[in-house]
Amino acid sequence: MAQEAVNNAIHDAKVISYKDFEAAFVGYVFGDSTCGQRALYPLGMTGIPIINVNNNCSTGSTALFLAAKHIEGGLGDCILALGFEKMQRGSLSTVFDDRTNPLDRHIEATGAVYPLTSSPTPVQLFGNAGREYLHKYTPKITYSLLFSSNSQFQNEYSLEQISQSPMIYYPLTKLQCCPTSDGGAAAILVSESFLDKYPEIKEQAVEILAIEMVTDLLSTFNSKDCMRVVGFDISKQAAQQAYVKAGVKPSDIQVIELHGIFLILFGDPFVHIYLDCFSSNELITYEALGLCGKGKAGELVERGDNTYGGKYVINPSGGLMSKGHPL
Length: 327
Description:
The chain is an alpha/beta fold.
């Protein structure tokens, strides 16, 4: 998967070859140490730094973030960002049971609002955030929550099919939860000076205007708010930082992909990258990004402002509901 992704990226870039890479940032979660080296060595052993990245659902975005900052810092002109994952079947769980769960504070914080159950932890975290949103903003959001679910694996589902699929953890049914999956993706990042040497590929180049990363704030854990536990405040802060750096407003954004704590703004037209993992998270993030006012995500959906013909086109890829979620 990794080699195929890199080869496809090189083919897309036309004039770039593996020997042009000055460093590689490789993201994966479920693998042994130095998997990045093992994945890339068959493509070339040029002695470049290969930095392995493990950051849960943000692993791929973190690799891209580091590659961009490497170039911004003047440490290289052509950097590879790669992500790949081979996952186990079923819901996510911890690998080690002889040490503290790194999400223990998140679990404790959501458990302070809603009793914990035996359901998978990720579903409880995002499901309880959805419950809290529903509690605050019903009845409008009940319809919108279901309506905004994305299709899985190119299949289209009706509202009735989504609502009647097996309940995993209220209010999330099976068709509102992204599946685990295997996959790989690669991006080649270059500096402006590097691009100037190859004018023939300038037209297909995409400019990163801003890429921001924010980790948990104190409010994540001490606010007794499940929406903050799954990232409302940090999504909002990342968005604000990216808007300022890029010199744009939320109303300037045209295409959006939803998920977590990163904001990446590409130039002309502006695109914000984020990927959807649970339907409840998508609605919560609408507000965090400033796409609508507080409690107005349902109205945004009902107006059709989250799809073709509306103000924003959100998750045209189908999001993680369609693509699966290789971390």
